[in-house]
Amino acid sequence: MSHNIPAMSNASTSDETHAQEIAATTPAQKRALSYSTTIETLFNQVMSTNMPADRIIGQYFREHKKHGSKDRRVIRESLFGLFRWWGWLNQLNSSQKHTTWFQQLSTCAMLEQHEWNDVATAWNDFASWPQTRPDQVELINNASLNDKLTAFMTVSGIDTCQLTQLLPQWFWQLCPIDDVDQYAVVNAMSSRPPIWARAQTLSTEKVIKSLGQAGIEAKANSYFSDAINLGHKSINLNEVNVYKQGYLEIQDLASQVIGQICQPNNHDKWWDACSGAGGKTLQLYSLMLQQGSALTGSIIASDIRTKPLEELRKRAKRAGFDNISVAPWKGDVLPVDANAFDGVLVDAPCSCTGTWRRNPDMRWLDDASAVTDKPMLQLAILRRSAVAVKSGGKLVYATCSLSPSENEQIVKDFLSETAEFELEPVTHPFTGQLCDMLTIWPQQANSDGMFVAKMRRK
């Protein structure tokens, strides 16, 4: 995959070069210089390897235990902030390599409205601004995206910046969005969604109470009775009792829509054809349990990757979900029986453009092929999986993509090939609107983006 924007072409990459070019005299400046070197190394590693930023930073923190919680926060949030605003920040250009990098860091701190003012001020000092410094620009608390655009143009002196530059050009070509909705989409993509979770086998009220006793602020959600908003702070789940006991699972609110659309009955037999680590498998089972009467249904989970299936086994065991089994998908042969299931969920591999709020680095690592390479595979998986649906059963197709070519077009192409299935209208859980196929946009309920269509075998 080719980068849409070059990785740090104007930035120095070595500690030695920085040490020669920058005179850090105060403790704050020394800390700021140390942070900048670490962040730059991680940034360049992401851009040069095409590895996800969360994986690279996770590996870094495992290898460098010296960092305390504040250090980790400055490094993590600055790194992800750079990717979030990179469509603007990459336009900054100074005659000196290291100066550009500090301009990018300090401008990012301004746009993100970070709290570490001493560090940001030191970055400003190192940046040698020819015009207005970021710390001289007034931004109100939680300033609007338009205000941030104005602030960036004031600081950079670049008056040609546009909101749409915060997402790559190919996104707008492959995910066409009405002009009136573009601001809302970019605005959502320029902010972090909260951590969403789901209560299972214990009431939402009790889970929230237990989380509160552990010092974790959690809120119920008006859309789904088991959905929980955990806010934005990092949480070590391995220290949280309700998680260790299987009463809590992390799952984005948009992802939770899929299970709600599936509406499994507690006597149903379901197949999750592309289960991954099983977030939706567990949700389906939890929804079955919520119906009160004895559960006689079951779920089979499949994936071509064995490692996620192992993770699913652990999660199911932790939750005490006995009627979940695993059937690895090897080759073209169906790993389950044909005409055997009341419901089949196909959460197909996709470009993941709907998850860009959580993974802002991916918008600069991927190119258009992330979308254009997928439709043939998606249609093939849907076609094969449909064979497992019995007469009168449900077939649910989902992706975390925002591109019609991976979503509506796949469903239309599939239905044009067969007269055995028909679309079943679904209600948008966040707007109440009845629609043939459903796209969840990130701005609608402060979540990721997601697509789902529900079909039934005649």
From TrEMBL:
Keywords: Methyltransferase, RNA-binding, S-adenosyl-L-methionine, Transferase. The active site is at residue 400. Transmembrane segments: none annotated. CDD domains: AdoMet_MTases (cd02440). The keyword S-adenosyl-L-methionine applies. GO terms for molecular function: RNA binding; rRNA (cytosine-C5-)-methyltransferase activity. S-adenosyl-L-methionine binds at residues 303, 347. GO terms for cellular component: cytosol. One of its GO terms (biological process) is rRNA base methylation. Residues 183-458 form the SAM-dependent MTase RsmB/NOP-type domain. It comes from the Bacteria. The keyword RNA-binding applies. Belongs to the class I-like SAM-binding methyltransferase superfamily. RsmB/NOP family. This is Fmu (Sun) domain protein. It comes from Shewanella frigidimarina (strain NCIMB 400). The lineage of its organism: Bacteria, Pseudomonadati, Pseudomonadota, Gammaproteobacteria, Alteromonadales.
